[in-house]
Design a protein that fits this description.
Blueprint (H helix, E strand, L loop, with lengths): L8 H33 L5 H41 L9 H18 L5 E8 L2 H8 L1 H18 L5 E6 L2 E7 L3 H16 L14 E8 L5 H18 L4 E5 L2
Parallel strand pairs: 4-5
Antiparallel strand pairs: 1-3, 1-4, 2-3
Helix pairs in contact: 1-2, 4-5, 5-6
Length: 251
């Protein structure tokens, strides 16, 4: 399949729009210049002169203009695909750890500069007894379980929230503008979504569950502090009974 065939519809809309507008402007300039030229050397613009003024940009410039616009969109699309690959975890399609951390830091910095008063939360989610899945059914089935959990997490958060795979069977979720009650509701929704996911490796039903630790903040916050506190609460959730949520308010 050619590179042009893989462009999304929005890119093709930009190609036709930009090429059409540029070509229209070229035709307008051609008509104006032709009219000036013919006013000087003849009685002014006539029908043949008008046809030449319109056809010359179309015939000479149209194909080249379309080609250049197409190549520009192909390059733009390729760069976006590379950025997506560089920031996405290959297995779960979540943000990778580096991209997740970078975007959370950027949002926290923006809030500090703008003195934003709405809060947020950082959740750390870890699969319970995941080693048993790999040991009993193999790593391929373990990968399937991770995809199921990633889908359950993404389906449980808002479009403005960030979901990242922090490594292994651990995920991170950054909730923008969430108060402690909302963060707890989202965390419980994630826990329930994972618990009800249908996972049957080799035809054997196997329950999945996650433990979730989190830290909420009201105004400004430091990422390292949030992560440390959320990780502490995750440890408490793991120590108590697993398949549960443990959140705290950051100072």
């Amino acid at each position: 399949m050619s590179a042009s065939a893989t462009l999304p519809p929005r890119a093709w809309n930009r190609i036709w729009r930009n090429a059409g507008l540029t070509l229209a402007a070229s035709i307008a300039v051609s008509i104006i210049l032709t009219n000036i030229f013919m006013e000087v050397f003849s009685a002014g613009l006539n029908v043949p002169g008008l046809m030449v003024a319109v056809l010359m940009p179309l015939v000479l410039g149209g194909p080249m203009l379309f080609y250049l616009t197409l190549r520009h969109e192909q390059l733009r699309h390729a760069n976006r695909q590379l950025e997506l690959l560089a920031s996405t975890d290959w297995l779960t399609a979540c943000l990778n750890r580096g991209a997740f951390t970078t975007r959370v830091l950027a949002d926290l910095t923006r809030r500090a500069v703008a003195s934003t008063r709405d809060g947020g939360a950082l959740l750390i989610i870890d699969a319970d007894a995941f080693k048993q899945v790999n040991d009993r059914f193999g790593h391929q089935q373990g990968d399937i379980a991770l995809k199921l959990m990633a889908n359950a997490i993404r389906d449980s958060v808002g479009v403005a929230d960030l979901v990242g795979r922090m490594g292994g069977e651990e995920f991170g979720v950054y909730l923008t503008g969430a108060d402690p009650q909302t963060a707890d509701q989202v965390a419980e929704r994630i826990r329930h979504a994972v618990a009800t996911a249908q996972f049957s490796p080799h035809g054997t039903p196997w329950p999945l569950s996650v433990s979730i630790g989190g830290a909420t903040f009201a105004r400004r916050a430091d990422f390292n502090d949030l992560y440390r506190l959320a990780d502490q609460r995750l440890y408490q959730a793991k120590s108590h009974r697993r398949d549960c949520v443990d959140l705290m308010q950051a100072a």
